[in-house]
Amino acid sequence: MASIDISGVKKSYGHFPVLHGVDLSIRNGEFIVLVGPSGCGKSTLLRMIAGLEEVTSGEIRIAEKRVNELAPKDRDIAMVFQSYALYPHMSVAENMSYSLRLRKTAKDKITRVVADAAAKLGLDPLLARRPKALSGGQRQRVAMGRAIVRQPKAFLFDEPLSNLDARLREQMRAEIKKLHGELGATSIYVTHDQIEAMTLADRIVAMHGGVVQQVGSPLDLYDRPANLFVAGFIGSPGMNFMKGRYMSGGNTTAVLLADGSPVAVEPRGGLENGTEVTLGIRPEHVAISAMGAIEADLDLVEPTGFGIIMHLSLHGLPFKIFTTDRSVLGSGSKVRADFPKDRLHIFDAEGNRVD
Ligand SMILES: Nc1ncnc2c1ncn2[C@@H]1O[C@H](COP(=O)(O)OP(=O)(O)OP(=O)(O)O)[C@@H](O)[C@H]1O
């Protein structure tokens, strides 16, 4: 196990910059998830840590040792890919033991380590099979088994579950989390799936356009998103945004929306009167109420079983409410609601959070 330190890391392909300077310190044993939309540079960052891509500038240290110039095989890390990358002509046991055999590890130790990993992953009955006789989930487990037996300093995961169907993904996600609890190994996991990021991470690194937008615990990012990008990316259905002007005077502080209607907010010391802001509220935090100050037109209702997503228009703009109260289904074409003050987020003209 090891800490991983990334300082001032930049990457360009030719003249095209892909990462604009990443600083990140990962503690020994921590589970870090790099999350962001396609093209944000998360795989490039992971591949640089693995040694599969050169670092253009900056430094990467694993267990406090600079690794920029080290070949992947000398970095003592294990990578688990979405494609599994198993050897088709080898059995499960042979696939799992391959790296140890290469290192000329003693036979009895190999047997013991492979048996341990197989037991942890529920692979005992499959050890003699070839990969083609396994399901996608079982292959993914073998890929993890192969990583575990090496007892590396860190595990790097590149979208390992994206080839699996939704139910299996959920199951494997829980298994990876449980395994991390048992092994306590430093792990970096890349995904574009924010649910995977929320459920797995000790800390999430949210990326966009080659820039780290926020680093924090899953609930930090959910409760206090640093900017509009993180606010919109984390949470499903996504946060509602409304443009307006911040007004504070006397006993009232409000954001005046485009149509002039006021939404009462807590005062924000850093904002001047009249500043343009974006107000945000999550669909699950809107309080439906017959006496509510906000009135919106109901366009569409999506019952998900667990709850109901209501698609509305508020002053002509799309707006969503999520509720588990089924009685709203009979509520007609208008919905009244309140925005609880403590659930409102305010972002300044640059899109940064204001508290
Ligand atoms: N070998 C390469 N040569 C040129 N550009 C590249 C190369 N590899 C990646 N890029 C570009 O770098 C950017 C970041 O790619 P990267 O694969 O890291 O994104 P990502 O966030 O992992 O996206 P995805 O989820 O789609 O894999 C993209 O714009 C991509 O087109």
From TrEMBL:
| UniProt subcellular location | Cell inner membrane
- For this UniProt record, give its keywords in alphabetical order, as a comma-separated list: ATP-binding, Nucleotide-binding, Transport
Q: Which CDD domains match?
A: ABC_MalK_N (cd03301)
Q: Which GO terms describe its molecular function?
A: ABC-type transporter activity; ATP binding; ATP hydrolysis activity
The membrane topology term of the UniProt record is: Peripheral membrane protein
Its Gene Ontology biological processes?
carbohydrate transport
GO cellular component, alphabetical, reads: ATP-binding cassette (ABC) transporter complex, substrate-binding subunit-containing
- Which InterPro entries does the UniProt record give? AAA+_ATPase (IPR003593), ABC_transporter-like_ATP-bd (IPR003439), ABC_transporter-like_CS (IPR017871), ABC_transpr_MalK-like (IPR015855), ABC_transpr_MalK/UgpC-like (IPR047641), Mo/tungstate-bd_C_term_dom (IPR008995), NA-bd_OB-fold (IPR012340), OB_MalK-like (IPR040582)
Q: Read off the Pfam families from this record.
A: ABC_tran (PF00005), OB_MalK (PF17912)
Q: Which residues cross the membrane?
A: none
Domain (ABC transporter): give its ranges: 4-234
Q: Which family does it belong to?
A: Belongs to the ABC transporter superfamily.
Recorded protein name is sn-glycerol-3-phosphate ABC transporter ATP-binding protein UgpC
Tell me what organism the protein belongs to.
Ciceribacter ferrooxidans
Recite the lineage of the species.
Answer: Bacteria, Pseudomonadati, Pseudomonadota, Alphaproteobacteria, Hyphomicrobiales
